[in-house]
Amino acid sequence: MQDDLVGFSPDPQRDHGAQHTSRAMTLRSPSSEEQALKTEQHRVWQQEVQHFLMTYPFTARLVMRLPLMMVVDDRVPTACTDGERVFVNAHFASRCTSALRRFVLGHELYHVLLGHFQRQYGRDPLRWNLAVDAEVNYRLLCDGFSLPHDAVLYPAQAGKSAEAIYQWLLAHPQPEVDTPFDHHGNLLASPIGGHRDGTIVVDTDYRPVLADSQRARQLTQQWQQTVQRVSETSWPGSVPCGMEQMLHTDTVSRVPWRHVLADIIQSRAGGMPSWQRPHRRHWGHGRYLPGRYHKTLRLVVAIDSSASTRSHWARFLGELQVLLVSADRVDLHVIEADAAIHRERSLSSLHELNALADEATPEGMTLMGGGGTDFRPVFERVEALVPDCLVYLTDGQGRMPTQLPSVPVFWVMPEEADLSVSWGHIVVMEET
């Protein structure tokens, strides 16, 4: 199936050759016939949801809580979700069989439940979309859904998280031979190319909510609570296998954090998209695409210096070293805190880290603290610093903030540690 959001790679069937790509493209709204098609397909798909209740009642009850929007927009060739609604291209919808309609609805629902729209963290867009599709499609297969013949599914990675599948895909020599069903990333990416008549269709009904990190985490938490409530009012044995995994498995992914960190740094090292600096090479072809700019990765690293973490201080120092050697452009703002913040320092080189290492004793690194643990002072400080993300080195035992932070959070802990949170990413320190 073709990608659901154009803008990342040209589709040769839509470019129609150089004689067309050099012509200026014009925007148009859906025609009256296309508006009528939207209305018709919305009715057809709503009827499908009603029939859905007969065969997959648990999944259908969740789908009914996710508003369906029919659009005719060149940015949505198939379907996508912003975490609050599902958008389906009416032309694509008109070609779907009943089984494919149910697959699409279940597919987008799982993306929402698993929070895929807020877990990319700068990873390569193609491999990330393949990874999340593989995670979703395996769950749908377990639930008894009929998958399209070209659905992304890697048997060797069955049952693994999107993050783990992504790591496996990094060794995939030609990821472009696979095509994700839909895209999770920039929902408002500009279309590339257009139609033979030189037009690009833009539908005003396609207005995805571009949630910030805090809103995205709230949405994921709300949906997980909804799944729990629906399960409590369902007949025994009616919960599909894929949903059962969500109910009885820690929903916060535990992955080697150095892999996650490398993904973020690689994205920053390669530059970030910027509409303020458009890519000039495409101007002559009538395309207005974002350019890229390089940015120093600004991290706040909070070290839990409470008494319970003393045996881990030497490992915490090792993780700081990994942060500094992972990229040329990374600034660390290190906070030492237990129930209160005791010291803050900035590190941007290994020389500065070596000076910090000189404080180490045979028993481990010397930090200021040694009392109980309260995470709240650090989170209050982070709101003032506004870094790219917060890395919290801890054993997981402490008082949590009542409000979600506005930046991504990575809880970096030893394998044996335990932290019960419904936001952020729990990642494990690798043994040295």
UniProtKB/TrEMBL annotation:
Pfam families: DUF2201, DUF2201_N. Residues 48-291 form the Putative metallopeptidase domain. Signal peptide: none annotated. Transmembrane segments: none annotated. Residues 299-430 form the VWA-like domain. Residues 1-35 are annotated as: Disordered. Residues 19-34 have a biased composition (Polar residues). This is VWA-like domain-containing protein. The lineage of its organism: Bacteria, Pseudomonadati, Pseudomonadota, Gammaproteobacteria, Oceanospirillales.
